[in-house]
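Thanks for the sequence, V.! I ran Lipoprotein NlpE right away. Repeating your input here for the record:
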Amino acid sequence: MKNLLVPFVLILGLTGCSTFVSESDKASSSQSAESPVVDDRAHNSQNSVDWAGTYHGVLPCADCMGTDTLLTLNPDLTYTMETRYIGTGDGWQRQGGHFAWSDNGSVVTLKDLENAPGLYQVTENQLYHLTEEGHRVSGALAEHYRLAKQHGQLPKIKGIKWVLMELNGQSVDVEGKQPFFRIHPETLQLAGIAGCNRFFGQFSEDAPGKVSFGQLGSTMMACPNMQVEQAFLEALKKADNLTRKGNQLSLNKGRMAPLARFEAAIRFN
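Predicted structure:
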């Protein structure tokens, strides 16, 4: 389904592709319970963390490129989960129901969820998808079993074609297609042209004012001059915050000079 971002939505794998940890994932990720949850009922996630809201991420999938997941946790202990299996051509699927907190107030269980172990550890601005046994995944895949809270505090940048104008303070002069990127307003998928090749990734707001463009992929065409393309993709990987002034957008790292500057393809008032 297309209209995804309803208030406070939680999304995870539904039917078809599996987002829970497979046997092969267990072997490669060496899941464990090395860090048991502390049973501190006076100060736990349920009563000390601003947990209500919408979380987003791309979870590992056994037979697809990843499960695009939107999960919303509501204050009344209901949830909505929307998922889409990337690379399959399938549309969005939606489930919903009630969730319950664990006795120690650190884990939520999504009830009536099909084909997935709906267990999540709740931390500040993040949800960690747990195994069926309630363990955090460790190893190489651990960071991919995470959903980040969407704060809605960024300036409006989604759905706009942002054309690259400067890299590291230097005007961009390319032969061929002008580099640009666009963020899908619902799925937050990143797509664009780096100059020669098309690229794709996943945009997320990791914390208030902090952003990331995820792990980027691209086509593999060879062109005479790849310097601008390589520098552009490197800027996207490094950027951790952004600023917008009118039709101008800057990608930044920390408080350093902008890595890249863009201009909206269509001017807005």
